[in-house]
Every structure is written in structure tokens, then in C-alpha cells.
Write a sequence for this structure.
């Protein structure tokens, strides 16, 4: 009889853990993945099931293979992951990605679908003069620039970003 009680207790404990884990996953911010492509396989759409925790948020991929590749070396893909965090509206701009200073709303540039503001024309020109989209993204979304210029967006009461 005591084995049966112990087994029932263990089962109840496991079920409560699984239930609380599912509730916690559902309580996270809801991210709109429409038009968000996997940055490791850019022709493919991302899926909510293929998410990885990153910078207290989530980055999304098309398949478990991309999840595995990213998880092995996230620092290798930091620029692209940071870009996706802004595209998915989990992070918002707080300062100039080059100087860290206050931004001027008249000094903006579209970088990979993200409207980025700069503090002055000189910083904006550095980004404009970068040779291609990857170089522009590196100036704005690299780990150092991202830390200066972006912050996690507060989650709305309805659970959306």
C-alpha cells in the first residue's frame, strides 16, 4: 500500500511540474512571427516550436537543426540574433548604436527591415557607408552596439510585445 501511495505522490509531482512548465511557456510574450525568416536558412519561415532562449528573450528558427547549430555557438550568430530580437519587437531602441547617445528622430536608416535612429549625421553616415547589409548590421546589431542601443521591451498586460 505504501508503494502505491509513493507512486501516486510521484505521479502527482511529475504532473504538477509538467503543468507549471506549460503555463510558464504560455505566459511568455507572444511574438508575431509573420514574415520572420530563419537567419540560418533565410528562405525558410520561423516556427514558434523552434525557439531558443537568448538575452532573456527568444530567437526563432525554421527547424531543430538550426536550433542545434545556434545553440552550439550563439556568439557566432549574435548580430543576426540581435537583429531578429528587434524585428520581433522583443527589444526596442534606446540609444545610438555607434555612440550610445540620445537619438535624433531625423537621423534614421532602414537596416534589414528595422528603422534605426542615430544621434547625428556622422553616425548615420558610418552605417550608410558600410559596404553591404551585413556590414551595416554589424555596426548596429553586433553585441557591443546592441548593448549600447537596445533594451528588452516591457511586455504588455495582454502578454504581447
Amino acid at each position: 500500500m505504501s508503494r502505491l501511495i509513493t507512486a501516486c505522490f510521484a505521479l502527482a509531482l511529475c504532473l504538477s511540474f509538467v503543468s507549471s512548465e506549460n503555463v510558464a511557456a504560455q505566459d511568455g510574450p507572444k511574438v508575431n512571427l509573420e514574415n520572420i525568416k530563419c537567419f540560418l536558412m533565410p528562405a525558410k519561415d520561423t516556427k514558434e516550436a523552434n525557439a531558443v532562449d537568448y538575452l532573456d528573450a527568444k530567437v526563432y528558427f525554421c527547424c531543430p537543426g538550426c536550433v542545434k547549430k545556434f545553440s552550439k555557438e550563439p556568439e557566432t550568430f549574435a548580430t543576426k540574433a540581435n537583429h531578429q530580437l528587434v524585428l520581433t519587437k522583443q527589444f526596442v531602441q534606446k540609444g545610438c548604436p555607434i555612440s550610445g547617445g540620445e537619438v535624433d528622430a531625423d537621423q534614421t536608416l532602414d537596416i534589414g527591415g528595422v528603422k534605426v535612429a542615430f544621434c547625428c549625421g556622422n553616425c548615420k553616415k558610418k552605417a550608410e557607408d558600410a559596404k553591404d547589409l551585413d556590414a551595416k548590421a554589424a555596426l548596429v546589431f553586433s553585441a557591443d552596439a546592441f548593448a549600447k542601443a537596445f533594451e528588452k521591451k516591457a511586455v504588455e498586460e495582454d502578454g504581447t510585445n
